Amino acid sequence: MIDLFEKLLKNRGPLGMHSKESYGYFMFPRLEGPISNKMIFRGKEKLVWSLNNYLGLANHPEVRKTDAEAAAEFGFALPMGARMMSGNSNHHEQLERDLAAFENKPASILLNFGYQGMVSAIDCLVDRHDVIVYDSESHACIIDGVRLHMGKRFVFPHNDVTNLEKQLERATKLVNVTGGAILVITEGVFGMSGDQGKLREIVALKKKFSFRLFVDDAHGFGTMGKTEPEQEKNKVFKMKLIFILEHLPNRWH
Ligand SMILES: Cc1ncc(COP(=O)(O)O)c(C=O)c1O
User: Fold this and answer.
1) What's the pTM?
2) Does residue 102 form part of some domain?
């Protein structure tokens, strides 16, 4: 029988096998300088496409000032403990109320980061009698949330609403037996390709099937605009951006 560590040394997996050559380049690249769309990489200024700073707020003077004031007033250790046990504060609750108002929703809940948010929310919503139907290009946090699910899951090819309908037919037959319900999961704007989820078409399927729709809008929140003309304009912009990304000259790869 092979020792676990020996096995890992022999076969480091699809990413691990390249880790030595790619460390500091594709994996763990070291970016220096202020957070921006241009940062120093390996001593040269480069365009940065991979930060989560979509709204450009990370280095916004007002945000930095508030950060500094909050650190001076409360320190970084406050509140102490998991929020459910001892770490809750009136500031968390106020922020939740503000976010709900911004989104025009009755309530919101803050989680430490998006990955945990999706995994936890999926796990909370479904039990083993329910069926999840999800887009094949869903972000890793959705896939991991779905993997935790004890019931059945059906995947539909990316943005293929005709196939989604087939999966909903299968799911409906199944929940009629288990007594469960159906959760459909997709994204508002897909992170890797930048294309939009077909939310309108998916919602239209509610006339025919009974399901709840869960949208991860990590890339759409704050970027797409509230009104339809704004959304259309941003859609065009995003498509242009993707076109540029797909046609990068070789030296940028
Ligand atoms: C669609 C989507 N959901 C969730 C996440 C996870 O967010 P976080 O990096 O805050 O864990 C990401 C991260 O890029 C994402 O693209």
Assistant:
1) 0.85
2) no
Query: Best of 110, 113, 141 to mutate for ligand 1, by most ligand atoms within 8 A of CB?
Result: 141
Distance between CA atoms of residues 44 and 46, nearest Å: 6
163 occurs within a structural domain: yes
CA 135/CA 128 separation, integer angstroms? 20
The reply to whether 206 falls in a domain is yes
pLDDT at 242: 52
Q: How far is the CA of 9 from the centre of ligand 1 (A)?
A: 31
Domain count, the chain: 1
Using most ligand atoms within 8 A of CB, pick from 110, 115, 186 the residue to mutate for ligand 1: 115
Residue 200's domain comprises 114-216
The one-letter code for the residue type at 233 is K
CATH code of residue 194: 3.40.640.10
118 lines ligand 1 (CB under 6 A): yes
What's the pLDDT score for residue 253? 34
